[in-house]
Design brief:
The chain is of the alpha/beta class. The chain has 21 helices and 15 strands. It has helices spanning 2-13, 40-49, 61-78, 121-136, 188-200, 222-232, 247-250, 262-278, 304-315, 336-344, 405-412, 422-426, 450-461, 467-478, 483-504, 535-539, 563-568, 580-583, 598-622, 629-661, 676-681, and strands spanning 51-53, 88-93, 105-109, 113-118, 145-148, 154-158, 204-206, 238-242, 284-287, 320-324, 355-360, 383-389, 430-434, 545-546, 586-587. Helix 13 (450-461) crosses helix 14 and helix 15 (483-504) packs antiparallel against helix 19. Bound molecules: beta-D-glucopyranuronic acid (BDP). Beta-D-glucopyranuronic acid is lined by residues 168-169, 210-211, 288, 326, 365-366, 393.
Length: 690
């Protein structure tokens, strides 16, 4: 895209074409880095400033990238090449490279100069992107005053990509990583990927699925990984891999992977040495162990700490072990929502310093809404990192418009009652996002899913940012700066996630999706081998009532939270209704806070969800004048799918609940379009992502 922009700027200068924000169809490839030509007062101010980039005294690959970005971005915003003579100077003072850069920068503007100052080159790169963002949003050069440092060290994407090019829970085509042609050919997409990440401050990437192939630990893959590491280094991105715990057996020729076995320890140490010889700034390993059939230390009667510390010892001070807390076991009778806490909290203080435990936002699994994970705050002597899912496995895949920043800020801002909110707890570690990228031209399968990549990066940089502020920025950079557009599109984005909650899993319900592919409603599934694979396990509905009793009378999962938090959720009459059925089993005629019965409220929430999608479609229809035709149509088509599927979720769910409770639908609530048996009979052999 860099080349495209330079070419466009050149052509514009020759008078061959004029760049205009919506003049041509766009395919979304340029993400939020389009930098369309400024108009009106903003254009006048930047033209009056007349930027000229001063050559910095210290150069290097990262500073060179920053200079290229500034040159291309500014000329695109101006609609002409930059001057070289007199004009407003843009100066960079970038310090020296450092193995552990803070990323901090300051950008200050006056009528004659914009200064970008950082301790290390990557700070200059972040500052350059921040400057371009501010200018693109219409800020005048002399008004620029930024002083920023990331809130957390690790801001990373986790790709669930496989060596064969498939992507687990990927809805945007095939993997972006071309293992077949690497290391000889590094696709230009790898550079554009790095640019997009660096523009947000993302500084780490795990390139393979947590359900890891041991191939990534073989000599065959090392040059491939090294080629990517080399391509991304100038952008401040370190490469990590998911490590399969049984690799010493799978590819190491040993007959055990016991973390306390000296040969196993020596194998990992030698493996780490081999990797660091090829990639000196290799980030480390991400590990999913003893979960969903993955191997782990418990196979040998050892603990998660034994496993993590063995790897931590192998990488030593060179890298980090990120050990996932997403564990649950078939043999365990415990409420699934309690298992991670029960396994990990007793290990607090036992993990090596270079181990981070990565915890999903909620205690089950990336549902449309979950309470925050009770591990946050419960392990004061362990660094905990938050794992969010950008790819919308449980929120309508790429087809549904659901802006996830409101979900993530809900979690980040949640008070744990044990040393701050979740953002405070994770600050010493970081945030990981399960990536939503793929080979689709628009990267994320739909235009609006780009917003989730963007929002994740912005929040990992600064969790104090507001969701609507991020929506506004993204929409202005991605579609149009017109205030009339933003005034309509931001509220639409802001209500989109709650709409999904309403039409899929209202009032604290969870995990009612189709078996395996997780596409569409299947609350009726009750007969799968493992109890916690069944939607019935989660809703516990019958003729009398619905919901999972997690109070002391039930599984007492509530007791895993600090008393101040647990007490807020203990009384179904006064608590936040959004978590009602997560924590309580109540009769169908239970009176909720609206004064309605639970049954009436449930129907009303489903209806509200479907109605919100209709509103979103109506809003989008009014926005045609602001968006190029290609992307306008792409979004419209997706909204149509979402409308149909929202209706389907509502209808099939109500049909099933009615079958259990025998109640008539509340007045004003329309009958489902099909019978329950018809919904149950639907099959989706081609559903993506499995
Ligand atoms: C579940 C996904 C599964 C992942 C798992 C995980 O369905 O594909 O492997 O999470 O996070 O939600 O490990």
């Amino acid at each position: 895209m860099l080349v495209n922009r330079l070419a466009a700027a050149l052509l514009a200068a020759l008078g061959a074409i004029s760049l205009s924000p919506v003049a041509h169809g766009e395919d979304g490839y340029d993400l939020w880095l389009r930098y369309p030509q400024l108009e009106g007062a903003a254009a006048e101010k930047l033209n009056a400033f007349n930027p000229v980039i001063a050559t910095p005294s210290t150069r290097g690959e990262t500073v060179d990238v920053a200079l290229d970005e500034l040159e291309a971005g500014l000329s695109s915003l101006l609609g002409r090449p930059l001057g070289t003579g007199s004009g407003g100077r843009i100066t960079l003072d970038c310090g020296a490279p450092n193995a552990d850069p803070s990323g901090r920068f300051r950008v200050t503007g006056s009528s004659a100069e914009i200064r970008i100052v950082a301790d290390e080159p990557v700070g200059c790169l972040y500052g350059s992107f921040a400057l371009l963002r501010e200018l693109s949003l219409g800020r005048a050069p002399d008004q620029i005053a930024l002083d920023e440092a990331p809130a957390m060290d690790l801001r990373m994407l986790n790709h669930w990509d496989n060596p064969d090019g498939s992507v687990e829970r990927g809805y945007a085509g095939r993997s972006i990583f071309d293992w077949w042609h690497l290391p000889r050919r590094v696709d230009t997409r790898m550079i554009d990927y790095a640019r997009a990440n660096a523009s947000l401050g993302i500084n780490g990437t795990v390139v393979n699925n947590v359900n890891a192939s041991p191939l990534f630990l073989t000599p065959r893959y090392l040059p491939k990984l090294a080629a990517l590491a080399d391509a991304w280094r100038p952008y401040g991105i370190r490469i990590y891999i998911s490590a399969r715990f049984s690799a010493p057996r799978d590819v190491g020729g040993l007959d055990t992977a016991d973390p306390l076995d000296p040969q196993v320890r020596a194998w990992w140490k030698a493996k780490a040495d081999e990797i660091y010889a090829a990639i000196p700034d290799f980030g480390g390993f991400l590990v999913k162990a003893n979960s969903e059939g993955q191997p782990g230390p418990q196979d040998y009667g050892r603990t998660h700490a034994d496993g993590a510390n063995m790897l931590a010892d192998a990488v030593g001070g060179r890298g980090t072990i990120i050990w996932r807390a997403f564990v649950y076991s078939a043999e365990d009778e415990t409420d699934r929502a309690k298992q991670a806490y029960e396994e990990f909290v007793p290990l607090d203080g036992q993990f090596a310093d270079n181990v981070i435990v990565q915890v999903k936002n909620g205690p089950i699994d990336f549902q449309p809404r979950e309470p925050f994970h009770p591990m946050f705050g419960a392990m004061p002597n362990t660094r905990l990192m938050l794992e969010a899912q950008l790819t919308k496995e449980y929120l309508g895949f790429a087809s549904h418009l659901a802006f996830l920043a409101p979900m993530w800020t809900e979690v980040l801002d949640a008070e744990t009652g044990r040393g701050g909110d979740v953002a405070d707890i994770i600050a010493p570690a970081g945030m990981a996002g399960v990536a939503n990228t793929g080979s689709d031209r628009n990267w994320t399968g739909s235009d609006f899913d780009q917003a989730n990549w963007y929002a994740f990066g912005r929040l990992a940089w600064d969790p104090a940012l507001t969701a609507d502020g991020i929506a506004r920025e993204w929409a202005a950079l991605t579609f149009s700066r017109d205030p009339a557009f933003l005034q309509a599109v931001v509220p639409m984005m802001m209500e989109s996630r709650q709409a999904v909650v309403d039409y899929m899993t209202p009032l604290g319900l969870a995990h009612l999706m189709g078996t395996g592919h997780h596409y569409g409603p299947a609350p009726w599934v009750c007969d799968l081998a493992r109890p916690e694979w069944n939607p019935c396990y989660y809703h516990k509905a019958d003729a009398r009532g619905i919901g999972f009793d997690r109070t002391a009378a039930g599984t007492d999962a509530l007791a895993q939270y600090a008393p101040s938090v647990a007490s807020g959720w203990s009384d179904p009459r006064t608590m936040d209704q959004d978590y009602l059925l997560w924590f309580h089993h109540v009769p169908w005629d239970f009176r909720v806070q609206s004064g309605r019965t639970l049954w009436q409220e449930l129907a009303a929430r489903y209806d509200r969800g479907v109605a919100t999608v209709s509103d979103m479609r109506a809003t989008w229809r009014t926005l045609a004048p602001f968006v190029d035709r290609q992307r306008f149509k792409a979004v419209s088509d997706m909204l149509e799918i979402q409308q149909e599927e929202a209706q389907w979720w509502r209808d099939a769910s109500l049909a099933y609940w009615q079958d259990l409770n025998g109640l008539a639908l509340p007045a004003g609530s329309a009958a489902p379009a099909m019978t329950l048996d018809e919904y149950r009979a639907l099959e989706f052999p081609e559903a993506p992502g499995e």
